[in-house]
């Protein structure tokens, strides 16, 4: 299982995120490796800015979604993460009709802070965005 302390099958991810931003944007997890995860997002009317290319904010939502999900999966049950900082460098445009793929790997898995590196690529493989997400580790509170 590598860095992962728990699993999230695709159907569990879909159920947990139904009706939330990730599901509304069509974000899907497609692969879990020993120390990485991949997710995809279509680029359609929901994701573009007036010039017809992927809105930078949509890339940030994808980056924060995959990074936060990875952050939770790297922790034991009873713990979660909260985003502290996210940044994104937009390197190449992505046009409507394409699909982007995010690859997320940990840079730091501390007991109080995690740092995740996310690369987002266009369908042709060109790097379109590089992002870094820093999260704070928190114990879940009883409901």
In short:
The protein has 143 residues and is an alpha+beta fold. It contains 3 helices and 6 strands. Keywords: Hydrolase.
Question: How is this structure best described in words?
Answer:
This protein is α+β, with helices and mostly antiparallel strands. It has one domain: Thiol Ester Dehydrase, Chain A (Roll), CATH 3.10.129.10. It is 21% helix and 39% strand. The protein is built from three helices and six strands. A six-stranded antiparallel β-sheet has the order 1-2-4-5-6-3. The longest helix has 18 residues. The protein is globular, with a radius of gyration of 15 Å.
Task: Offer a few descriptive terms.
143 residues, alpha+beta, Thiol Ester Dehydrase, Chain A, six-stranded antiparallel sheet, globular
């Amino acid at each position: 299982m590598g860095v992962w302390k728990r699993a999230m099958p695709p159907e569990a991810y879909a159920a947990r995120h139904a009706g939330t931003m990730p599901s509304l944007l069509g974000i899907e997890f497609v692969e879990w490796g020993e120390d990485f995860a991949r997710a995809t997002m279509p680029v359609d009317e929901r994701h573009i800015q007036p010039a017809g290319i992927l809105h930078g904010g949509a890339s940030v939502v994808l980056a924060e979604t995959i990074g936060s999900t990875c952050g939770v999966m790297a922790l034991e049950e009873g713990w979660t993460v909260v985003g502290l900082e996210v940044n994104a460098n937009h390197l190449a445009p992505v046009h409507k009709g394409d699909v982007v793929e995010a690859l997320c790997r940990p840079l730091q898995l501390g007991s109080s802070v995690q740092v995740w590196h996310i690369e987002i690529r266009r369908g042709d493989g060109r790097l379109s965005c590089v992002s870094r997400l820093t999260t704070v580790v928190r114990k879940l509170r009883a409901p």
